[in-house]
Amino acid sequence: MVAITALAMAESASAQAAGETSTATPQATSTASEDQLQDIVVTARRTSEALQTTPVAVTALSGESLVQRQIASVSDLGRTAPSLSVGGGGTGPGSLVFLAIRGQAQNSPTSFSDASVGIYIDGVYVARPVVGNLGFLDMASAEVLRGPQGTLFGRNTTGGALNLTSQKPTDRFEGYAKLGTGNYGQRLVEGVVNIPLTDELATRFAGRYDRHAGYFKNPFLGRRQGDVDGEYYLRGSLKWEPTSLPVTLNIIGDYTHYRDHGAGVSTVAINPDGALASFYALSQAGTPGYENFNFGNAGPITQYLNPQFVPADQRQFLLSNSWRTVYGAPQTGNPKIDNPFSLTKAGSITANLDIDLGDVSIKSITGYRKSHSANSQDLSGTPTGVGGFVSIYHNHQFSEELQLSGSLGRLDYIGGIYYFRESGTEETQSAILYNTPAENFRGSLANYYAESKGVFAQVNYNATDSLRITGGIRYTWDTRFINRHGVDDYRAADPICSGGINAGLPASVAPCDPPNKVKFKYPAWTAGIDYKLSPDIFVYAKTSGASMSGGYNGRPVPPEYSSAFDPEHVKDVEVGIKGEFLNRRLRTNFAFFHAWQSKVQRIVTTTFVDGDGQTQLTQFVSNSGKVRTYGVEFEGTLIPWRGMELTGSAAYLHAAYVRGSRTENQLVNGLVVPVDRSGEPVTQAPKYTANAGATQTFDIDSGKLAFHIDYAYTAARYFDYFTTGDPAQAAAVAIGNESARNKAYSLVNGQISLQMDSGIEFAIWGKNLANEKWFSNAFNSYTGLGSSEQFPSAPRTYGGTVTVRF
């Protein structure tokens, strides 16, 4: 309806505006000679601007740069931008990614909470992190926006945003085909074709298939882990640009299929006084009931997770039987913890309509995404009964944004309205201490619905040709609904909940509480001033505020925590200077920032004893005090001579809880003890990050020969940390905390490519050439289940590609 109305407006204005079109695609413009830096155009403020006069700390990467630096997915961006930290899915599927910018992170994999870094692809927000690790295929650009972006990008951008843009159809018949191979049995097939259908209509298709064997040999299970069994990605784009109307319409559809056999996981610490060690000792001693708790036998766990033990009518009530048609036949569909895997399927369609009416532009951004994911993950990498998760996600999201932008004399403006909704289900099963008399299989199911509405406006007043004043505000209204069910011990039929709310429902799927609805409303804002000291030096100062939406936990929550959690808020001050020197051969950008977070959302992973006296393993979100961060960032590019480009960035980050802002009640020796946790380090907030790169290109008789190498450094960071109020547990807690600390690491990557004038390109590449050992996430239950695990990242990989362009 929005598109039809807008087209009608365009028809009436076509007489005075025919042929004029606007574009919002970030690009590099060729206004400089070969030994000068090119201008870079970004859309960090939802309109096209030069990078060097945009008052935002932003890292902009072109499509060519993404390929050259082997940035194949969102997770690879961690080695390109200062203050950006990337974490892997851990116990979640391989398509899951956790992002943190300037120490602001929210690492919950659930469908009931949101991230602090918003991911936008072609202008559409990607709500669920379970499909956040998007593959980069035929991309026009990627922008990493640092600092709160709530005014123009909306909620869930307290840390920043990723603004990703795919290549749009052109008026030329062109494309390429690529074949690749590498170690660990890596196989790659990729292709793009652009077809102009008429003078006004063009289409573009892109596709990729990628796979590799497991990176890690698990000596306990006798097989490899960390593989990608198959990743398929398809995208089709249609562009309509009529000559009789000032209109550009881009329609984009994509589909992703991702499957692996579980993330690599390694037990790195076993508590000699914990459950794992004690049960293993009992097993070795032949104690009745513990015979199968050992490192060589998975035992009877499979029978407990078989769908046969959940009656068909109850399981149909849980999932409407829909997931079986996606993930397999009923007898094999239920993932087993002793055979981990993850499978994600997602598809989306986006329609972007741009209308240029001269001094006024209208833009409609419509998006729909559907995703399904199932994964099982063992928590130890051994057949012992430490524990594991099984999760099944279903999600549908729709969004519509309508923008109005233009100029009135010295005043530039942009404003609009925004609507978003999503719905779905999430089922989780946890199994802990199996193969022992204490074994426990628990689960939960939640149906959820979320709706967000927003209105925003931002103006830039050009007081002089050099001085500009900016102000903007946004207001958001959120509604979240959740209906929680419990699936009890799969070996028993005892009811979960008490009271009359379960009347008429099967006991094992009865709602644990009445449907819950929470509502939130909050503003976002920005105010700033910028000034051109000279044509090549630009300075700015601004303050911004943004929020991350609150919600309601769908998984079990211990009684000392609240099931609902409030929005997280952040406000900051940022001062920056951007400059170009040496006849535009050197570009340097600095940003200084100071931010204050309140009602910080943190993921809690813990065990607790439920009302039946059974131990449960759960993850949920809780508000957790206040955090203050400050730091400085640098980015630079230098062309010392023709054909050579040097890039680099560095950041210093100080992130700490405000003293006394984070107090938690803990049960110690039967007494409730208040514990101050404000002395803990902020997770996923490395103090230093840096990267550097060099590319030398030689013109040869038959084409171009290019050598590229880059280096990325990340200081130590914690993925989890806990403070105990029990002095007797202090030593054990310290060991567990250390196991969740990723030591500082460095990554070296390189590529050599030969681009021939005939259109054929040969390339050899390598990632993590020094074979650095580091991990992308951790699970710390040293004082809970009695062990700590790490999820290692990819080792040294290398290979080659052949590309034919036409």
TrEMBL record:
What broad taxonomic lineage does this protein's source fall under? Answer: Bacteria, Pseudomonadati, Pseudomonadota, Alphaproteobacteria, Sphingomonadales
Matching entries from Pfam families are given as:
Plug, TonB_dep_Rec_b-barrel
**Broad class of where this protein is predominantly found:** membrane
User: What cellular component terms from Gene Ontology apply here?
Assistant: cell outer membrane
- Residue span, TonB-dependent receptor plug domain: 51-161
Family membership noted in the UniProt record = Belongs to the TonB-dependent receptor family.
Any GO BP annotation = iron ion transport
PROSITE patterns, A to Z? TONB_DEPENDENT_REC_3 (PS52016)
The answer to keyword Protease applying to this record is no
Q: Which residues form the TonB-dependent receptor-like beta-barrel domain?
A: 305-769
Query: Which segment of the chain is annotated as a signal peptide?
Result: 1-17
Sorted alphabetically, which keywords does the UniProt record give? Cell outer membrane, Ion transport, Iron, Iron transport, Membrane, Signal, TonB box, Transmembrane, Transmembrane beta strand, Transport
Protein name per the record:
TonB-dependent receptor
Which cell locations does it reside in?
Cell outer membrane
Provide the membrane topology annotation.
Multi-pass membrane protein
